[in-house]
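Tutorial, part two.
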Amino acid sequence: MVYLDEEAVRQRLDWDALIAAMEKALVSFSRGDSMHPVRTILTLEERRRYVGLMPAVVGDVMGLKYVTFYPVNAQAGLPTHNATILLYRTDNGLPLAAMDGRLITEMRTAAVSAAVTKYLSAPESSVLALLGSGVQAHAHLSALSRVRTFSEVRVWSRTAAHAQRFAREHGATALDSAEEAVRGADIVVTATGAHEPILEGAWLKPGAHVNAVGSSRPDWRELDDAAMGNLVVVDSREAAAVEAGDVLIAGAPIYAEAGEIFAGTVACPPRSATTVFKSVGLAIEDVAAARLVFETTAPATA
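Running the prediction step on this input gives:
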């Protein structure tokens, strides 16, 4: 069994191929073509240290991601997410590869958002607002730029210095408040570990699209009730009903799973609709990304 470290994974993951793979994986998930239980979460220390076990069987491959989620690490400048993914053959159970899963988690999360954004946002969307300036803000800027062309990128962070650093690195505009960043934006990304809402629905322009990827605990949320009163799409109804505080606390009805929209089994909402994609992250995404890494023999620039 081969082992691929983070740099090897980076050399083998291409945004366009990954976005396409995530779209295909979520279609498979929503059709019920995979074996995919909701992840098991072990709470080592509430709001500080968690461990997740995420298995999935997808056709001729199956895999498991062992992921640690340590919000406490941010205080020490360490990654809050670390992971290892194991990939096996379904037919005989033989191992294929083990690989570092931190970068896969980072990139597949943003790639899923990009796939959803392609369907739910207006094609002419040109103003992006990022609430949060960490790993997922970086990844989302890269991934979303593959499906939309931005003339303006705004960033806000609960730590102003972090937003300013992000702005310098990416040619973005750092703003002093989340409201300033969001008002008039076509696409909004919330990528924080907030426990209380940082985004108010009153700030969203009609027809805006929100990718809410942070705060994936049942008692945490990034969006207020007004924001969640818009048309809501999730990656998994079952997982959202267990893990997504944004959905649970607001009692938000779910319009569709992303895979249903990709497959056309649920109609894509009109471009005039204000939409929210609440992502909690699925094992099928990790297995599909790991398979892409394993099958890519010639390194590509990520």
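The longest strand covers residues 49-58. In part three we will examine how such features are distributed along the chain.
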